[in-house]
Write a structure and sequence with these properties.
Layout lengths: L3 H14 L5 E6 L10 H8 L4 E7 L2 E6 L4 E5 L4 E6 L9 E7 L4 E6 L5 E5 L2 H7 L12 H9 L5 H6 L9 H11 L12 H20 L30 E5 L2 E5 L11
Antiparallel strand pairs: 1-6, 2-3, 3-4, 4-8, 5-7, 6-7, 9-10
Helix pairs in contact: 1-7, 4-7, 6-7
Length: about 270
């Protein structure tokens, strides 16, 4: 599933190719991604308007239109944007196509149709209704992070992934953050020492920022990252021990049993 770094890349892509162009027509190929929104209402709200600016919150992207409404994008498991130059046709799994008056097009592609697009009058109210916590990169300072972690009754991985506590971190990047911090994914969050929490906070910012800088391309990530080795039986990039997989709150967690020993995660 696209996580905070992925959505930040989508934001920058849209900012580069999709802003300040007049939307001539909206083509809907799957009404499912509109959820409860009526297709004709959606089309009329956008036709003749422009995407003016964008803001990301966790895994959500909000685009402000010249019609003075926000368009909210969530990318589900498989969503992304694709820009088409004039004359190019969509491939893959296009669900909604925003046709511009210069004959170019921005495509919302979502193979499994688990993403969604919403018209949003008030972005902050939408975030509150979704019970989203503060954005992991923009709104969580060191003190707020310590409160979140130390007051959690869950395991470390589950706490990082809880969107009501911190918005933006999912299954993949929680593994990387914990690996960089040397914390076992099953360690109880509230048992972490103050020093461990502070280091975890810095590792969270480091991992998310580095992933964005690498444009979420695994092969460009630092050699000491877990992500290129996130498969059972591959060698830990730091110590050479085989990577293992366990279930944490129903999700697969990849970790190094040596670097992230449960006994050394307090």
């Amino acid at each position: 599933m696209p996580e905070l770094p992925d959505v930040e890349i989508f934001k920058r892509y849209l900012d580069s190719y999709g802003l300040d162009k007049t939307i001539k027509e909206v083509e809907i190929r799957s009404e499912k991604v509109l959820r409860d929104l009526q297709p004709e209402e959606f089309k009329s709200a956008l036709a003749g308007n422009k995407f003016g600016s964008s803001q990301r919150h966790g895994k959500h992207l909000f685009v402000y239109t010249s019609g003075e409404e926000w368009l909210g994008f969530h990318f589900g498991m498989t969503g992304f944007f694709e820009y088409l130059s004039p004359g190019e046709g969509p491939e893959g799994h296009p669900r909604v196509l925003f046709h511009y008056d210069d004959e170019s097009c921005m495509v919302y592609d979502c193979q499994r149709k688990l993403g969604e697009i919403n018209l949003v009058e008030d972005k902050d109210n939408f975030i509150a209704r979704k019970n989203l916590g503060p954005d992991a990169l923009k709104e969580v300072d060191r003190d707020k992070f310590e409160v979140i972690i130390s007051n959690s009754r869950a395991m470390a991985k589950s706490t990082l992934m809880n969107q009501e506590k911190i918005a933006g971190i999912g299954n993949i990047y929680s593994d990387e953050i914990l690996f960089q911090a040397g914390i076992n994914p099953r360690a109880k969050a509230s048992n972490l020492s103050q020093a461990r929490i502070e280091d975890l906070y810095h590792k969270m910012n480091y991992v998310l920022s580095e992933a964005i800088a690498c444009e979420v391309e695994t092969e460009r990530m630092p050699p000491n990252f877990l992500l290129p080795h996130r498969t059972p039986g591959t060698s830990c990039p730091q110590c050479g021990v085989n990577i293992e997989r366990v279930k944490v709150s129903g999700r697969s967690a990849y970790f190094c049993p040596s670097c992230q020993s449960i006994s050394n995660s307090g």
